[in-house]
Amino acid sequence: NLLSRMIIYTTSPIGRAPQQVDFSDYRDVNGVKFPFEETFLWLDGRWTAKITGIKTNVAIDAKKFGKP
What we know:
Blueprint: E1 5-12, E2 15-29, E3 32-42, E4 45-50
Antiparallel strand pairs: 1-2, 2-3, 3-4
């Protein structure tokens, strides 16, 4: 029962267009399933993102949230 496909509609120069994202290669990370491969399909073609690692609950320096 994990999400395998998401379709959203976005605006484009030719009108409303669907954007499809396929999720696969789910792995357990600290008790939560994350997709390690995402395939995107839109007007300009298809491309795939493969994630090599996910870290949860990592401390982030407060300076990163300040104004530049």
